[in-house]
Structure formats: structure tokens, C-alpha cells
């Protein structure tokens, strides 16, 4: 009886191993060059231009203060010998304090610009990732890989590159959003 039981278990095991499995579906994959996508992204360029202008405006303000400081420092050099050592020490300490304040102001401005632009770029990247995910679902992709600065694909055929398609869709979507934002402004002026 034990032999019969072992034979039937062995037969079941052999039969179950011989089952034909259905062929797996062909997977649809593609990749996006993320660094190229950001280079060609209209909104990213607009963000970069916006903060370049802000940086130049803040730089002009700082340059004005710095030139006033330099002229005071030059005057200090001339007056230090005439007005004596006590005056020179007091004025020197005051100038040092102003120099530190200028430096701190410059650092604060740079940090503010970096934080603001960083928030906008993070938001943009989040929207791009969402768009790629939606694109993949809409077009039946199983996987969409990313290449670029943080490469997750070491090699892919160019035929799988959908960067241009994604960039075109995102830029068109951004242009549509930008037009919607501009329309109320032109109506208000009328």
C-alpha cells in the first residue's frame, strides 16, 4: 500500500511538472532620458530664467551696498592717520561689522533663491514623474526606465527612447496652462 501511495504521488508530481504553461505576454518597455527631458522642458527653462532675473536684481542691490561700503573703507584709510588711533579703531570695528552684515545678507539672498527655485523644480519633477506614469498606463507600457544623471538603465536600443514624445506632451501641456493663466490678465486690462 505504501508503494502504491508513493507511486501515485510520484506520478502526480511528474504530471504536474509536464503541464504546458502559456507563453508570457511580450512586455512593452521604453526609457526616458531624464536629463535631456529637463533640458528641453519649457517650464524648467522658464523657472531658470525667472530665478536668473531675480538673482540679477538682488545682485544689483548688493553691488550698490558693496560699492558704498568700499568708498567708506577708502575714506577710512585716508582719515585714519588724521583722526588718530582711537577713531580708527572705533571706525574699523564699525566697518568690519558692516562687512559681516553684507556677507550675511548675500548668503541669505542666495539661500532664499535656492529654496524657492528648488521648490518649483521639485514640483515640476513631481509633475513630470506623474505624467510619465500616466503616459505609460495610457500607452500600455509595462516598464518605463529612466536614464540621465541618475541612470537606472545602462543600455537600451534607441527605438525604446520615448523622451521626445514625453517632452512634447509636457511642453504642450505647459503651454496650455500658461495660456490659461495669461487670458485673465489680458481681459482685466480691457
TrEMBL record:
PROSITE patterns: PROKAR_LIPOPROTEIN. Pfam families: OmpH. Signal peptide: none annotated. GO terms for cellular component: cytosol. The keyword Ribonucleoprotein does not apply. PANTHER family: CHAPERONE PROTEIN SKP. The lineage of its organism: Bacteria, Pseudomonadati, Bacteroidota, Flavobacteriia, Flavobacteriales. Keywords: Signal. GO terms for molecular function: unfolded protein binding. This is Outer membrane protein. Belongs to the Skp family. GO terms for biological process: protein stabilization.
